[in-house]
Amino acid sequence: MASGLEVGTLVGYIAGAGLVTLLTFVIGDQAMVDWGWRIPFFIAAPLGLIGFYFRNHLDETPAFEAMHQSIDEGKQTSLKEIFGDHWKPLLVCTGIVIFYNTMSYMVLTYMPSYLSEQLGYSQTKGLFLILIVMIIMIPLVLAAGYWSDRIGRNRIIKGSLIGAIVLSIPAFMLVQNGSIYGAFFGLLILGCLLSSLQGSLPATLPSLFFTKVRYGSLALTYNIAASLFGGTTPLIVAWLVNRTGNNMLPAYYLMAICFLGIIIVALFVKETAGRSLRGSERS
């Protein structure tokens, strides 16, 4: 069921990309740059209130409720305790978030600009290709979540990382071959690999931490790592391509990050499929 989290993310991406594509087609590229970019923000603003309502009406997990009732009232987990006693899962989680968000930002955020700036596609056509790929990804994410519960999350994650190492160069070669169909199938390969991570990692990350520190630890590692490494991926890759003139550098960058991911998952991530989330620490 955790894969539904990333389905929601994809639906948001699809809605955003679809709106931008439609606006760009209707009002033109220049008008979109001049003033049209404000329209999606005005439309999205009320959605924050809806998300806030849903978040405040979600039930907590049984493990958290039991822990909350057993501890002294007003006692909070400190940052000192999180960093001092749980530094190892913090580092592991940071590594996982780095390779996951690098691939996510590479495929969903950077590739439209790569298609237009490096390969000469119009912005509308580039966004449209990514839009179709994201729609196809939705059932793939759910399938990856289903199979990760049955054959193991680590197998799905490792398979995706190995696939990225092996197929990144062929995928980017397809994207660059000058045919819109080749570009689509190259993007689809990358999207399928990303779908495997999106279907398995939402259940893997919370399992790294004990109940007492799960929210704080995951919030810290995910947001910091995603901001510093995932969010900067398009900027870094675009700079490398412009600096070297090598359009294959995004593939090499992705392969290097996924190679580090293989090491992290193989050595430091235990299989948790079919098991309950970690409760309290042993005394």
Fraction in helix? over 70%
As a whole number of angstroms, the C-alpha radius of gyration is: 20 Å
- The arrangement of helices and strands along the chain is HHHHHHHHHHHH
**Number of self-contained structural domains:** 1
- Number of helices, counting only DSSP H or I runs of 4 residues or more: 12
Looking at CATH, the homologous superfamily is MFS general substrate transporter like domains
CATH architecture: Up-down Bundle
C-alpha termini separation: 32 Å
The share of residues in extended strands comes to under 5%
Mean pLDDT over the full residue set: 88
- Report the major sheet: none
Kindly state the number of beta strands.
0
Topology at a glance:
Elements (H helix, E strand, L loop, with lengths): L2 H25 L1 H8 L1 H18 L6 H9 L8 H7 L1 H31 L5 H29 L1 H23 L4 H25 L9 H17 L2 H12 L4 H20 L15
Helix pairs in contact: 1-2, 1-7, 1-9, 6-7, 6-9, 6-10, 6-11, 6-12, 7-8, 7-9, 8-9, 8-12
Can you give keywords for this protein?
12 helices; 79% helix; 283 residues; mainly alpha; Growth Hormone, Chain: A
Describe this structure as you would to a colleague.
The protein has helices at residues 3-27, 29-36, 38-55, 62-70, 79-85, 87-117, 123-151, 153-175, 180-204, 214-230, 233-244, 249-268. The protein is built from 12 helices and no strands. The longest helix is centred in the middle third of the chain and has 31 residues, at 87-117.
